[in-house]
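User: I'm curious whether this sequence folds into something compact or stays loose and floppy. Could you predict its structure so I can see for myself?
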Amino acid sequence: MDILFLLIPLSVVLVFVIGVVFWLALKGGQFDDLESPGLDIVLDDDSSKSVSPESARSGESSNERGHPE
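Assistant: Here's the prediction. I'll summarize afterward.
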């Protein structure tokens, strides 16, 4: 029974800490835009990072040959 005198206040403090962290995340804009990160992956243009067949066979990337990405 004595352990309840420790666990109840500790759990109340933990709830307040979690609430403050959640409030700071809301205030900082963490949950403002939930759709764009998922759409960025789908709409990503991979055509600029194409690998030529010669470099794929030899194992070198376009960066190692001196071409910018």
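Summary: The radius of gyration is 26 Å. The CA atoms of residues 26 and 32 lie 8 Å apart.
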